[in-house]
Amino acid sequence: MRLIVDQDLCISCGLCIEICPEVFDWNDDGKANVTEDPIPEELEDSAQEAQSECPTDAIQEP
Ligand code: SF4
Asked: What is the pLDDT of residues 6-19, one digit of tens each?
Protein backbone atom coordinates (compact mmCIF):
# COMPACT_ATOMS: atom_id res chain seq x y z
CA MET A 1 0.00 0.00 0.00
CA ARG A 2 0.97 3.62 -0.48
CA LEU A 3 -0.01 6.69 1.56
CA ILE A 4 0.71 10.39 1.31
CA VAL A 5 0.18 13.31 3.69
CA ASP A 6 -1.73 16.24 2.22
CA GLN A 7 0.51 19.07 3.39
CA ASP A 8 -2.31 21.61 3.24
CA LEU A 9 -4.47 19.52 5.61
CA CYS A 10 -1.79 18.47 8.13
CA ILE A 11 -2.04 20.53 11.33
CA SER A 12 1.18 19.08 12.81
CA CYS A 13 -0.58 17.39 15.73
CA GLY A 14 1.97 14.56 15.72
CA LEU A 15 -0.54 11.77 16.23
CA CYS A 16 0.49 9.74 13.19
CA ILE A 17 4.14 9.92 14.22
CA GLU A 18 3.21 8.82 17.72
CA ILE A 19 1.16 5.86 16.44
CA CYS A 20 3.48 4.75 13.63
CA PRO A 21 6.96 6.33 13.72
CA GLU A 22 8.24 3.67 11.31
CA VAL A 23 6.18 5.27 8.52
CA PHE A 24 5.57 8.90 9.53
CA ASP A 25 8.09 11.57 10.43
CA TRP A 26 8.40 15.35 10.49
CA ASN A 27 9.63 17.13 7.39
CA ASP A 28 11.53 20.42 7.19
CA ASP A 29 8.25 22.36 7.10
CA GLY A 30 7.16 20.94 10.48
CA LYS A 31 4.48 18.78 8.85
CA ALA A 32 4.17 15.01 8.82
CA ASN A 33 5.52 13.03 5.91
CA VAL A 34 5.47 9.40 4.77
CA THR A 35 8.96 7.90 4.90
CA GLU A 36 8.17 4.46 3.45
CA ASP A 37 6.92 4.14 -0.11
CA PRO A 38 5.53 1.62 -0.57
CA ILE A 39 4.69 0.81 3.04
CA PRO A 40 6.04 -2.63 4.03
CA GLU A 41 3.33 -5.20 4.71
CA GLU A 42 4.24 -5.59 8.38
CA LEU A 43 3.65 -1.85 8.96
CA GLU A 44 0.33 -1.60 7.11
CA ASP A 45 -1.92 -2.11 10.15
CA SER A 46 -0.12 0.53 12.16
CA ALA A 47 -0.06 2.97 9.21
CA GLN A 48 -3.78 2.45 8.65
CA GLU A 49 -4.48 3.12 12.31
CA ALA A 50 -2.57 6.40 12.00
CA GLN A 51 -4.56 7.19 8.87
CA SER A 52 -7.89 6.63 10.59
CA GLU A 53 -6.85 8.63 13.69
CA CYS A 54 -5.64 11.72 11.78
CA PRO A 55 -8.01 14.51 12.89
CA THR A 56 -8.03 16.27 9.52
CA ASP A 57 -7.98 13.22 7.22
CA ALA A 58 -4.69 14.45 5.81
CA ILE A 59 -3.35 10.92 5.33
CA GLN A 60 -4.65 9.68 2.02
CA GLU A 61 -4.11 7.16 -0.71
CA PRO A 62 -2.26 8.74 -3.65
S1 SF4 B 1 -2.13 12.94 12.36
FE2 SF4 B 1 -2.68 14.11 10.53
S3 SF4 B 1 -2.68 16.25 11.17
FE4 SF4 B 1 -1.59 15.09 12.74
S5 SF4 B 1 0.59 15.26 12.16
FE6 SF4 B 1 -0.24 13.38 11.25
S7 SF4 B 1 -0.91 13.95 9.17
FE8 SF4 B 1 -0.64 15.84 10.36
From this structure: 999 999 999 999 99
